[in-house]
Design goal:
The chain is mainly α and 440 residues long. It has a single domain, classed as Growth Hormone, Chain: A, CATH 1.20.1250.20. The longest helix has 33 residues. The two termini are 27 Å apart. It comes from Corynebacterium uropygiale. It is a multi-pass membrane protein. Pfam families: MFS_1 (PF07690).
Length: 440
């Protein structure tokens, strides 16, 4: 949880700063509208490189182990974030500034692509069978914790360095703090033992030489469905984690024009709500199953999406906070059980590749360009209604994908059960009787 929180603190910090700061100090010469769009594009650009990180991490994670990969991703992410904190602006070094910023964002994307899969498997493969949901929620909690931490630090700095001071130097402090977080995360991860499932795979000398090839050859449909499941969560979630709401609500040229610190406080509170609901979803899924929890979660998420912009558009910070908190309930219940779901649907030999690549593809389909799409819809229509329709459609597609999956709660995860794990978890493909899978 701590390691993942540090990784996503770095990742979300960039997204929030893109909408509030980078659009001016790095992309300002493009003009207000184009600068904002390009800033959000730079957020989404990193998602294109997440599959590279997922492929590399999946390949070496299935062959070398989960722990080593997690150490590397932590250093890559933290190092890139720290360098952003000292990067000169366009006014200082010209076009080289946005180019270097984008390069560092790409490094963040590669790191994020490899981070989640390793963290998930370390949690779920260590967990008792009947507690995979709640323990698998630990790395999931790290994501809203990263948002809470990044929004909280930015909110503090907006008061420490108000107004122009925040634009000049205040925004850099949260990025520089990442260096200290790297040390903390490295110390924690260094003390974690390797996944018992991977140790068993290594002992049996059953490592797959080309796990990615095997993954798409045998589980291509599953990868697509699970990617769509995550895309539905990601598109809605990236309204805040991608910085769109922060920019929309604080833009002085817009119709809302709320104070920056108050909006960041609202996002921080919603992140806390998201964290709690994520934990609850993992716990609930241990009792009613991953699939049923997802169904409930997407229904609540759709309701939250429909309420979000009408509440934000009241120009009341209280209503904005209510809208974000309501949405975060659905986000939590379509996210907390994801670790256990993914781990239980892929065979042990290709599990790291499966969860990492699927997560990365889902991030591209959902969160990658959601802020950019939302901004483009806003500029072209002049209202937020089109954004609501877009997010609802993504959620409905994700719900449909969930309905096509079988629940495999309690399936053995070790390599000795590889034959059972390879049976199709997709409804309509295969005629497997999963009622014989128990929690024993």
């Amino acid at each position: 949880m701590v390691g993942t929180a540090i990784e996503w603190y770095d990742y979300f910090l960039y997204a929030a700063a893109a909408g509030m700061i980078f659009k001016d100090v790095y992309f300002g010469p493009l003009g207000p509208a184009a600068g904002t769009l390009v800033a959000f594009l730079s957020v989404g650009l990193s998602f294109i490189f997440r599959p590279i990180g997922a492929v590399l991490a999946g390949h070496f994670g299935d062959r070398w182990g989960r722990r080593k990969v997690l150490m590397i991703t932590l250093i890559l992410m933290g190092g890139a974030t720290t360098l952003i904190g000292i990067l000169p602006t366009y006014a200082t070094i010209g076009a080289a500034a946005p180019i270097l910023l984008i390069v560092l964002r790409i490094i963040q994307g590669i790191s994020a692509g490899g981070e989640w899969g390793g963290a998930v498997l370390m949690a779920v493969e260590h967990a008792p069978v009947h507690r995979r949901g709640i323990m698998g929620a630990a790395p999931q909690i790290g994501v809203p914790a990263g948002l809470l931490l990044s929004s909280g630090v930015l909110a503090v700095m907006s008061y420490v360095a108000p107004g122009e001071a925040f634009t000049q130097w205040g925004w850099r402090v949260p990025f520089l703090l990442s260096f200290l977080l790297i040390i903390v995360g490295f110390y924690i991860r260094h003390g974690v033992e390797e996944s018992p499932v991977f140790e068993e795979i290594a002992a049996r000398q059953e490592n797959v030489k080309m796990p990615l090839v095997q993954l798409f050859r045998r589980h291509g449909v599953l990868v697509l469905l699970l990617a769509l499941v995550f895309a539905g969560n990601g598109a809605a979630g990236y309204m805040t984690t991608g910085g769109f709401i922060q920019n929309y609500a604080t833009d002085p040229a817009g119709s809302i024009g709320l104070e920056r610190g108050a909006v960041l406080n609202a996002v921080t509170l919603s992140a806390a709500s998201w964290l709690i609901c994520t934990l609850c979803a993992g716990l609930v899924s241990d009792f009613i199953g991953r699939r049923n929890t997802y169904i409930i979660g997407f229904l609540v998420q759709i309701a939250g999406i429909c309420a979000l912009f009408p509440l934000v558009n009241t120009r009341s910070i209280g209503m904005l906070t209510l809208g974000l908190v309501f949405l975060s309930i659905g986000l939590g219940f379509t996210y907390g059980q994801q670790s256990a779901l993914y781990a239980e649907l892929f065979p042990a030999s290709v599990r790291f590749s499966g969860v990492s690549v699927t997560y990365a593809i889902g991030a591209i389909l959902g969160g990658a360009f959601a802020p950019t799409i939302a901004q483009a819809l806003l500029q072209n229509t002049g209202t937020t209604g089109a954004i609501t329709i877009y997010l609802v459609i993504m959620s409905v597609i994700a719900l449909a994908a969930v309905l096509l999956l079988r629940d495999r709660k309690g399936i053995p995860l070790g390599p000795e059960h590889e034959k059972l794990q390879r049976l199709s978890p997709v409804r309509g493909i295969g005629t497997t009787d999963y009622t014989k899978i128990t929690m024993d």
